[in-house]
Amino acid sequence: MPNRVRDRKIMMPPPMDGYKPFGIPIRQLESVTLLFEEFEAIRLVDYEDLSQEEAAEKMDISRPTFTRLINQARKKVAKAFVESRAILMEGGNYVIEDFWYKCQKCNETMTTLKQAKQCRNCDSEDIVQLNKKTISR
């Protein structure tokens, strides 16, 4: 019997909802979905230059689990590049310590320690909470 999938701790949301090939309308594209924890794995290893062991520790998962996660993420990104697909970033099995919001008016992504009622950029109250799961401090 396989173990249950543990939530992966992630530090920050992706800065946008996704990417698409230049010059092709999104409605004409197939897409791949990059989970938030896959984005975090790429961010930690390929952008922050952490070792897989250090990244696994930050995400509170085992190193073998992290290796599987980063390999899945890289395959999805490669598939999107090679096959000219859009990359959508959403969902997954994750926990966070703070609150994430996206303003529907100015598209600002905010990370806060407390719940927010308005956008810090344009003061709009039309904000959407991106995360549903949080862990207590």
Q: Could you provide a short overview of the structure?
A:
29% of the residues lie in helices and 19% in strands.
Describe the protein's architecture and organization.
The chain is of the alpha/beta class. The chain has helices spanning 36-47, 52-59, 63-82; strands at 8-9, 18-19, 31-34, 86-89, 94-95, 99-103, 109-112, 127-129. A three-stranded mixed beta sheet has the order 2-4-3. A three-stranded antiparallel beta sheet has the order 7-6-8, with no helix packed on it. A two-stranded parallel ribbon has the order 1-5.
Give keywords.
137 residues; alpha/beta; 3-stranded mixed beta sheet; 3-stranded antiparallel beta sheet; 3 helices; 8 strands; globular
Q: Kindly name the structural category.
A: alpha/beta
Largest sheet: 3 strands, mixed
Helix content range of the residues, please? 25-40%
Order of helices and strands: EEEHHHEEEEE
Report low-confidence residues grouped into runs of 5 or more: none
Summed over residues and divided by their number, the pLDDT gives a mean of 87
Shape: globular
**End-to-end separation:** 32 Å
**Total number of helices:** 3
Strand order of the largest sheet: 2-4-3
Beta strand %: 15-25%
Give me the secondary-structure topology.
Elements: E1 8-9, E2 18-19, E3 31-34, H1 36-47, H2 52-59, H3 63-82, E4 86-89, E5 94-95, E6 99-103, E7 109-112, E8 127-129
Parallel strand pairs: 1-5, 3-4
Antiparallel strand pairs: 2-4, 6-7, 6-8
Helix pairs in contact: 1-2, 1-3, 2-3
